[in-house]
Amino acid sequence: MPTPQEWKVLKLLAKEWEHSGPPGILDISDIVAAVDLAPSETLQTLKTLFEDGLVDMNSLKTSAYLTPEGYEATEPA
C-alpha dihedral over 55, 47, 53, 61, to 10 degrees? Predict the structure, then answer.
């Protein structure tokens, strides 16, 4: 079960997925600006979601997007 912080990031990326199509890519700076968390907390949350396989990042680590598993995690049961 995602933490409240993870939930905020997952829902934001899922919204982008639905708006722009998979995989819902957002710049890290846009994610930091959009969620109501401290920047360091947002970056730690992204790292945890990455390690859990729910979020992936580009090779430069400047943008993040949902994996299919991450998107499924945001769907109602």
Answer: 50
Question: How far apart, in whole angstroms, are the C-alpha atoms of residue 77 and residue 21?
Answer: 21
- The conformation of residue 25, written as its DSSP 8-state character, comes to -
Residue type, 68: P
**Quick one: which of 40, 45, 41 has its CA closest to 13?**
45
Phi and psi based region of residue 58 (left: phi greater than 0; alpha: psi -120 to 50; beta: remaining): beta
Question: 28-42: per-residue pLDDT in tens?
Answer: 999 999 999 999 999
- 37 and 45 Cβ atoms separated by less than 8 Å: yes
Q: Which residue has the higher pLDDT, 55 or 2?
A: 55
- Where do we find the tokens 């997952």? 10
Residue 75 has pLDDT above 90, yes or no: no
